[in-house]
């Protein structure tokens, strides 16, 4: 009785190796990247309000938080939140959009406004 020959085995192994390698590359590209977040999530809204309050204290302004327009998160030593938010200066002025980056380490109860700029 003749043993089956596995001529296609090297090709199969090579294909699996290529597949695994490509999965590792794709996963590696996501590490540290920005991921979309729900702008209506209560915690994201809380972070947006914090950003406006912190900016008001630092810049001596009086912006009023309106809503979160867009949000993204990035896992670092904690979580960075990149939030596009809408805020007004009061007095019936039209709302303007701003981008805020907030760094949070929830387990340490640490929150810091990293940047805040008009967009």
UniProtKB/TrEMBL annotation:
Gene Ontology MF term list: cysteine-type endopeptidase inhibitor activity
Annotated ranges, domain Cystatin: 29-119
CDD domains: CY
Name of the protein described by the UniProt record: Cystatin domain-containing protein
Span of the signal peptide: 1-28
InterPro entries from the UniProt entry: Cystatin_dom, Cystatin_sf, Prot_inh_cystat_CS
Keywords: Protease inhibitor, Signal, Thiol protease inhibitor
